[in-house]
Fold this sequence. Notes:
Radius of gyration: 20 Å
Largest sheet: 4 strands, mixed
Low-confidence stretches: none
Number of strands: 9
Mean pLDDT: 93
Helix content: 40-55%
Strand content: 5-15%
Order of helices and strands: HHHHHHEEEEEEEHEEHHHH
Number of helices: 11
Shape: globular
Amino acid sequence: MQFGLSESQQILKSNARKFFAAECPLSEVRRIMETDTAHDKKLWRSMAEQGFLGVVFPEEAGGMGLGYVELAALAEEMGRALVPGAFLSNLFAGAVLHAAGATKHLAAISSGEKTATVALLEADANWNPDAVKMPTLAGEKLFVPDAESADFMIVAARDANKLALYLVESHVVKKTPMPAMDLTRRLYKVTFDHPAAELLVEGDAACKALDHALNVVTVALCAEMTGGMQRMLDIAVEYAKTRKQFGKPIGQYQAVQHQCADMLLYTESARSAAYYAAYTMTEGNADAPTAISVAKAYASDACRETGNRAVQVQGGMGFTWENDTHLFYRRAKASEMAFGDATYHRERIARA
């Protein structure tokens, strides 16, 4: 593989950093996360105009038709900026629609005309599609991301013991907010009572579509976590350079240097794993699911530990409301569990 981004990929990454610095500074993140849905329509429209919402979807479906390395580059910058809202849930839904061949609905979310999410998890909180037990659109789904801001949701259910994926308009179901660690993304319990729905795909095709979508969104999440880790490292290093103790910056003390060195190691290792996973997805390698699980297992632990060390370097300041580190740490803890924690992905590797 190429151990660096191409010129076009570097341009995408650079443009994304400039865009989010201008459109979504941390002051704006704090404003958006105080709203009911933590989703800002103006920012969403601006992201759609940049083509970010359909970066990996085909051009005939309103996307940019780029690869998963480009997705990883974009997601890393989004993680660095702590972009709030429904990007990951929208990407998850879009990947399902793409795999299911639902071009009409895919075009709507690639263009930003509509937003979507996926209702998958149940009481056991198992990300494996085989764990879906809810009978056809009758029951509850838990931890559904961004359900209130979504125009429609893709629902996984059992139909005559076969997995089936349905498209349901969001306004016809009951949505109840659930507590969430990450203040920039909302989670909901969604209750279904036989709403009108469109069957997208069922049986083996449904399993394959959901597996593919989980791989896509996990690659994006790993890259996003890397961006957040880099930002926590940058904040901690800047603090260590300016905070003085006993007449000199605390960054001159070896104990603080060790913490920063650990953070750098975690960040660079997570970045390498995330981009390799994206590369295997782009190339269609058979070991892509294993590479993705390696990346997520490592990033889940590394992102949490990077947050721990960022807080330790800054002492009590790291958890004060005015300091931005705790916002990234909240994202790290939420991302650790999203789409399978380290234990889930190690078991996935073992089964493979």
